[in-house]
Design brief:
Elements: H1 3-18, E1 29-32, H2 45-55, E2 62-64, H3 71-80, H4 83-95, E3 104-109, H5 111-122, E4 128-134, H6 152-165, H7 169-174, H8 187-193, H9 197-200, H10 208-215, E5 219-225, E6 241-242, E7 250-251, H11 257-260, H12 266-271, E8 275-280, H13 289-301
Helix pairs in contact: 4-5, 5-10
Bound molecules: 2-acetamido-2-deoxy-beta-D-glucopyranose (NAG) (2 copies).
Length: about 300
Amino acid sequence: MRSTPILLLIIVLISTIYGNNVTQNYTPIVMWHGMGDSCCFPFSLGSIKKLLERSLENKVYVTSLEIGGSYVRDYESGYFIHPDKQLQDACNQIANNKILSNGFNAIGFSQGSQFLRALVQRCPAAKVKNLISLGGQHQGVYGLPNCPSLTTKSCEYFREMLNYAAYTGWVQKRLVQATYWHDPMNENLYKSKSTFLAEINNERKINQKYIDRLQKLENFVMVKFWNDTIVQPVDTQWFGFYKPGSDSETLTMEESDIYTKDRLGLKKMKEDGKIKFIAVEGNHLQIKNDWFIANIIDVYLKN
Ligand SMILES: *[C@@H]1O[C@H](CO)[C@@H](O)[C@H](O)[C@H]1NC(C)=O
Ligand SMILES: *[C@@H]1O[C@H](CO)[C@@H](O)[C@H](O)[C@H]1NC(C)=O
């Protein structure tokens, strides 16, 4: 019995030394996974976390958001938890994490990129310095030619549902990808019915807070994968999209209404040199370690 307090003390000491209590020299990093992925699969974000830690001399705190409170819910969240709910969850996690209170760098993977941008816009506790978007869909998608990791059958089913019913209320509520489905042949329908993307892109009305909070970023880095077979159009990774009324001709960010009509403050960010476009050869999220170290870690995460 008498040994219990001593044992407790030892446990507390050990966890203080070996716990998440790294001596931090570098700005903490928050990651947000894409669909068909989870916070912590060892072969995906788990290995990126290790790469970040190794490259930053183990003097950095890296966390990968787990949405929904469990491993399984987190995996499902990429398809079935509405982005508004996911954002609320992420915002609470960040507000309650002292280590992040002085700011952090953020890395989004695929749809996690637009969710992190929305987090900057909506969540005052998220003081993001550099926002790295890896294959994000900032103006949405029109087509998911290849689904990652779902069986072909359910992938086909998803695509059909998105093609024919993306803007119906119940699909918008239940399927994450519908909330950023952007049909260029039906711009007005998209603007009125998209329950997520049209709102965060200020396409219905202007939310000045969104503009102001985005301006606080030091850099908004958008990485586009040239040979992407999952995201259509590839241009959305650089905040471009199909020209309204066309499903083949595309517009760059600077040619899009969001930019020319200055709905999101992107013009000011560009003038201030905060918007960085990076292109890399390869398919969706095919990230090579050497490339990632030289172009992302060394440039944007050594602060
Ligand atoms: C880390 O450990 C130090 C003591 O070594 C302690 O003062 C500090 O509060 C700890 N930080 C966290 C985040 O646990
Ligand atoms: C990837 O796309 C780029 C740009 O379109 C092209 O130049 C390159 O040849 C492509 N690479 C592969 C492996 O298909």
